[in-house]
């Protein structure tokens, strides 16, 4: 922790490369960050009916996100109370209970203990049902996004999200959304913070990493990535909004629902969106990619991302595609195709980003072997004045090229992982 405080200097725009892959740092992260923060686990539309469940991760902890027979959403450690065997072995399902594959203990979808095989014979001395309840995390939802935390003393979810709620309303609260299919998952040999900070704060890379998009004429060349706003939403959350002034980019059929759910300021910003990316601290990212010409129409495929650590230098990437439930069929259909072509395992853009993150991770591992820390530059926009007349919450900067949100990400990260000493 002391070394972290000496070398991680977000306010000076300096982050040492070793923090991305140091195994000791990673152990602290699992305990103090993934063990305590609010973490995204599922979208409500993935478990619409009583008895539905999906299996997810909170850091490295495998959990069951369950809608009980009573309709209530609960999040349980996926671990049997008898000997700790994994309880739900499938990725998703529906049923009143889970039966452990080891000795057959059975638990209801509200977490209570239901029974054990040969119970009267095997446990003739009796079994205390209460002590056998599944270990349950605290959970809550915002805009259809279900979050959970192991921290009983954590602030309410809405406080944790803070200023980010204003933007989440635009992203997922503007309409009723549904997840299309099941999320794609793949392994990337990258430290988890690299994609998280990229989505939170890095509009700058698009002009270089994804330059071919402009060359192919898929986005307008010069300005791409530059015009818009950079938002430090507090608590380590960050986002960027690219803007255009050609008017609304979505099917007019959806407008009424948007009007009902958004304030006039939020609606005005929505209409100007060219792209919209961000990260809910620590590891939930989102993206409305640039609207592209596809199948003769203008579409975009919105995605949620989660960067689940599976070690200090590797992640399981999760990718959900979301669409408005009430959208016209062509929007759903073409949006799904656009999503598949741009991001995910087969996406044109995904590969570019992945290559960066892999190489950065390799170099972080090298930095670990050197005595002197290799300091990386996070100084873009230091000292720049935020806007005063922006209607949304958070600290907002004019222009997307800025690293203020990355500095805030690492400040929040440092406070949690190394303890506040400021
Ligand atoms: Fe689950 Fe024994 S470990 S029943
Ligand atoms: Fe990118």
UniProtKB/TrEMBL annotation:
Matching entries from InterPro entries are given as: ARHD_Rieske_2Fe_2S (IPR015881), RHO_NdoB-like_C (IPR043266), Rieske_2Fe-2S (IPR017941), Rieske_2Fe-2S_sf (IPR036922), Ring_hydroxy_dOase_asu_C_dom (IPR015879), Rng_hydr_dOase-A (IPR001663)
Its keywords, alphabetically, are: 2Fe-2S, Aromatic hydrocarbons catabolism, Dioxygenase, Iron, Iron-sulfur, Metal-binding, NAD, Oxidoreductase
Q: Residue ranges of the Rieske domain?
A: 38-120
The organism's superkingdom is given as Bacteria
* Record GO terms (molecular function): 2 iron, 2 sulfur cluster binding; dioxygenase activity; iron ion binding; monooxygenase activity; oxidoreductase activity, acting on paired donors, with incorporation or reduction of molecular oxygen
- One of this protein's Pfam families, by short name? Ring_hydroxyl_A
Entry annotated with the keyword Glycoprotein = no
**What family is reported?**
Belongs to the bacterial ring-hydroxylating dioxygenase alpha subunit family.
Q: What is this protein called?
A: Aromatic ring-hydroxylating dioxygenase subunit alpha
The organism of origin for this protein: Nonomuraea cypriaca
């Amino acid at each position: 922790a002391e070394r972290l405080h000496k070398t991680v200097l977000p306010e000076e725009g300096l982050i040492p490369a070793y923090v991305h892959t140091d195994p000791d740092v990673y152990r602290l992260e699992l305990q103090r960050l993934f063990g305590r923060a609010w973490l995204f686990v599922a979208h409500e539309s993935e478990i619409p009916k009583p008895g539905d469940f999906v299996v997810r991760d909170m850091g490295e902890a495998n959990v069951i996100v369950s809608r009980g027979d009573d309709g209530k959403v609960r999040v349980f450690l996926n671990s049997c109370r008898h000997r700790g065997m994994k309880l739900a072995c499938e990725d998703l399902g529906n049923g009143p209970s889970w039966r452990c594959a080891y000795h057959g203990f059975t638990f209801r979808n509200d977490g209570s203990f239901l029974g054990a095989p040969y119970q009267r014979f095997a446990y003739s001395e009796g079994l205390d049902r209460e002590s056998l309840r599944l270990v349950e995390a605290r959970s809550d939802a915002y805009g259809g996004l279900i979050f959970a935390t192991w921290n009983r003393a954590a602030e309410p979810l809405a406080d944790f999200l803070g200023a980010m709620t204003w933007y989440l309303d635009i992203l997922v609260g503007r309409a009723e959304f549904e997840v299309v299919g099941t999320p794609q998952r793949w392994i990337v040999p990258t430290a988890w913070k690299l994609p998280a900070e990229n989505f939170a704060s890095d509009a700058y890379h698009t002009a270089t990493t994804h330059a071919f998009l402009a060359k192919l004429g898929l986005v307008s060349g010069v300005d791409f990535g530059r015009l818009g706003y950079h938002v430090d939403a507090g608590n380590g959350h960050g986002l960027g909004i690219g803007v255009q002034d050609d008017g609304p980019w979505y099917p007019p059929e959806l407008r009424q629902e948007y009007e009902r759910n958004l304030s006039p300021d939020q609606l005005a910003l929505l209409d100007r969106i060219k792209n919209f990316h961000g990260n809910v601290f620590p590891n939930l990212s989102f993206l409305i990619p640039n609207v592209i010409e596809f199948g003769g129409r203008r579409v975009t495929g919105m995605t949620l991302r989660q960067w689940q650590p599976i070690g200090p230098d590797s992640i399981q990437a999760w990718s959900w595609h979301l669409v408005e439930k009430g959208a016209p069929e062509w929007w759903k259909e073409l949006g799904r195709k656009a999503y598949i072509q741009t991001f995910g395992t087969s996406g044109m853009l995904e590969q570019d980003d992945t290559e960066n993150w892999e190489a950065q991770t390799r170099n972080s591992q090298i930095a670990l072997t050197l005595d002197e820390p290799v300091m990386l530059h996070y100084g873009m926009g230091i000292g720049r004045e935020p806007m005063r007349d922006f209607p949304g919450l958070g600290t907002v900067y004019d222009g997307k090229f800025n690293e203020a949100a990355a500095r805030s990400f690492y400040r929040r990260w440092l406070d949690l992982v190394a303890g506040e000493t400021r």
